[in-house]
Amino acid sequence: MLLILCSSIFLMTTLMGWGKLMENIFGKSLQGISGKILTGILSVGLIFTVVAFFIPLNLYVEIPTILIGFLYFFKDKLYLEFFRFSKKDSIIVGILGTVILFSASFYPFILDHFGYYVPSIKWLTEYGLVKGISNLDLILGQMSVWHILQAGFSNFADPFLKLNAVLLLIYGIYIVENKSWIQFIFIPILLVFSQSPSPDLPTIIFSLIILNEILSGNKNLTFLFAFSIFTFAIKPTVIWLPVFILLYSIFILRFQYKQLIFGSLVFLLFIVKNIWTFGYPVFPFAAFDLGVAWKPNPELLKASSQFALVKTFDEQYSYAEILKFSWFDYIKNWLFLDGIKSIINISFVASVFGFIIFSMIKRKKIISLICISILIKSLLVLLFSAQYRFFIDIFFVMFFVVFFKSLNKKNSLLISSGLAIIFIGLFSSPKMVQQFIPSFRLGRNLTPFEKTQILKPSNYEYKQYNSFKVGDLKFNVSKKYPFSFDTPTPAISESYIIDYQKEKIFPQLIDKNDLKKGFIWKKLNVTEKKEVDKTIELIKNSYQ
Q1: pTM
Q2: Per the CB 3.0–4.6 Å rule, which of 1, 127, 157, 328 could disulfide with 101?
C-alpha cells in the first residue's frame, strides 16, 4: 500500500505538471486538480504513443517525462491547489484513497493481466511498438494506448503497474471538485479493476467524465472530441462515445469542422498504430486490407473470429452447434446461459429497453442522442461478440444519465460506503465469492489479505520457461503455464504454437538481426515443421 501511495504521488505530480504545460499552450479544457491531471494523461499518452514507434519506453523516456512534469508542478506552485479542499472534502478523499490503496494491493486476478496486459507492457518497455507483433502473438496486436501510457511509467514511477489505482484516486478528486456525488457509487464497483492495468477502467471513467462535462454545460468540443477518441483508442468497444460527441456537435452545438481536427489526428494515430502492430486499421477485424506484408494469417483470424463467437456463449456450445442455431435459438441460448452470465445478459437487454423508454418519456434531445449512440454500440456488440466485458460500460452510463440529478451527496456517500464495505469484504474473504457465485470464474483467482500488502502490493513471479528455435526465430515458452507474463521476450503462448502447427505456419523475424523490425508469418518447410513438432512434444512432456 505504501509503495502504491508513493507511485500515486509521483504519477499525479508528473501528470498535473504536464497538464499545466498543455494548458499554457492550448488553453484550459477542464477545471481543477483533476482537470490538469486528465489533460496530462491525454497529452503524455499521445506523446508516448508517437515515441514508441521509434524507441522503447524505458528509463530514457520516463525520467525526462517525470522531470518535465515536476518542473511545471513546482514552478507554477500547483501543490497550493490541494489546500483548497475543505476539511470535509479532504476527509472524503483521504478515506477514498485508503480504500483504493487497500484494494489495489491484492494479487491481480483478471486473466488478461497475465496473457495480454503485462506481455504488452514488457514489449513496449523493451522495444516500443513492434511491427507485425500480432504474428508472434495475435492478442498483442491490440497494444492499447492505456498500456502504452502504463509502459512509459513502469520502469521507475510505477513498477507494480498500478496506474488504474491512481486513476481511481484522480476520479475521486474529480467527483469532489465537480460535486458530481452520484459518481461515488461507481467507485466501489470499479475497485475490481484496481489490481491490473485493465483498459476497461479508463474507458468507463473517461466516458462518465465526458458525459458529466457535457451534461454540466462544457462546450469545448475540440477537447471533448479528442478525449473521446483517446478513450476509443484505449478500447474501441467504447465506440458509442465519439459517435455521441459527433451527434452532439451536429444537432446541439454549432458544428465547425476545425473543432474536430485535433480528434481526427488522434484517430489517425490510432489507425496507424493498429496497422503497424496488427496490419489492419481496427483490431481484431480484417477489414480495409491495405496489403501490408506483416498482416496476420487469414486462417488464424478466422479461427479467432470463431472463438469470439464461442466466447459469446461462454464456451457452453461448440462453434458447430452455434452455426445450427436459428435466430430464435441464438437469442434464447445467449439470454439463458448457465450461471451468472445469464443474469448479466438479461440485465443488459432489460436496461437498454428501459433506457429507450426513459429517453422517450424525457423527450430531451441530448438524452435521445445518448440513447441512439448506445443502441449503435449495442447492436455492433450483439452482431460481433456479445461478451459481457464488451458492454459492461453501458450499465454505468445508463445509470448515470437516469439518476444524474436524483441522488444528493448524503445518499450517494451512504450507498457508496455500503458497496465499498461489500467489495472490500469480497477481496478480504474470496471464499465467499467462490462459494456463493461459483459460475464467476474470476472469483477462483482471488486470494486473502496478506500482511506484506501494507508495504507493497502482492505480485506474482513465475520465471519458468523453455527456449526453442523454429527457422530463424528463437523464442521462449512459459513452462507448464499458458501465459507468458514474465517470460523473456520474444515469448509465445502454448496455444498459439498449436495453432501455428495446425495451419503449417510460424512467425519469423523480418530482419533476423533486429527484433525491433518486426515479424511476418511464413509457411513451414519440412525442416521447420519438424522443429515445431518437436517443440510441441517437449511442451507436452513438461506436464508429465
Answers
A1: 0.94
A2: 1
